[in-house]
Amino acid sequence: MEPFKVYILGCGSALPTQKHVPTCQVVEIRGKMFMLDCGEGVQMSLRRAHIHFNRISCVFISHLHGDHCFGLIGMLSTFGLLGRTASLHIYAPGELEPILNAQLALFCEDLSYKVYFHEVLTNKHQVIYEDRSLTVESIPLEHRVKCCGFLFREKPTLPHINREMVDFYRIPQSQFANIKLGMDWTTPDGDVVPYTRLTTPADKPRSYAFCSDTRYVPRLHRLLEGVNLIYHESTYDKTNEDRARKYYHCTGEQAAMVARDSHAGHLLLGHFSARYNDESSILEEALKIFPNTTLSNEGMCFDVK
After folding, report:
1. pLDDT digits (tens, 9 = 90+) for 155-175
2. Sheet architecture: strand order including 115-119
3. Phi and psi at residue 235, in whole multiples of 5°?
4. 225-253 exposure pattern, b = at least 16 Cβ within 10 A, e = fewer
5. How far apart are the C-alpha atoms of 158 and 181, rounded to whole Å?
6. In the annotation, is 67 catalytic?
7. Any residues with CB less than 8 A from the CB of 144 and at least 6 apart, and which?
8. In CA terms, which of 41, 194, 285, 287 is 20 to 30 Å from 120?
9. Closest Cα partner for 213 from 302, 143, 114, 155?
10. Which residue out of 37, 67, 213, 237 is catalytically annotated?
11. Strands (E), 141-233
């Protein structure tokens, strides 16, 4: 099975601390790498994670709060200093485009690569990126500014060749692709062998949902039904639920309710307030509702399965 990994580069909130830096992740799927948000400190986090800068093909920005995008222009500048030639695609709310263009004109006048901007309508659930192996959908969220999450879905793959069976029937390798596509095999004696006997089932497509800053949205689970892995902001524990409500954030308990109602496989908590030296209270309240829950931390890498 091809790698599908999530690297946590930053899981803090607005104030960087000695423990956490602002939000940033990298999703690796089938050899491609996508960045989710780009807070301060992203370049050092990339180096610590041993992620080659030039492997990142797209950057998805959930909203225009500094802890989710202040690292972007510095990273783009460094890409140029490193001699990058491959184009970079940025998906973000439209308000970022004039700001980014002004920064590029001021700080990155002679970039060695092209930057393409794609506006994301944060109030719509739609496919915003697609290639041969995956789609990325926007997830409308409710924050103090326009904000959305991102849902990565693998596309279905073909079944696997059953090596024992094709060897038994002495089927040439040149026919494997046709068999995967559903062609039966006819032996020299005229017997027809169904392709289902010559293959094993395809891997089940995997999915990952990145739910950035948002207040609790009771209907959110409908868009996330059956997702393998959810990252959901959990800035506070329930003792600070009033603060969460005021600033349009969530508690660990509320994040767990989303995971439970969407029948998710696993929940990652993140975007922790700087007031917590220990996020165990956030985890404990989530575990009571959704046992398969983990606290995010910088340097972690999760396999989506």
Report:
1. 998 899 999 999 998 999 999
2. 115-119, 88-92, 56-60, 32-38, 24-29, 4-10, 301-303
3. -65, -35
4. eebbbbbbbbbbbeebbeebeebbbbbbb
5. 7
6. yes
7. 247, 248
8. 41
9. 143
10. 67
11. 148-154, 160-161, 185-186, 192-193, 199-200, 207-211, 229-233
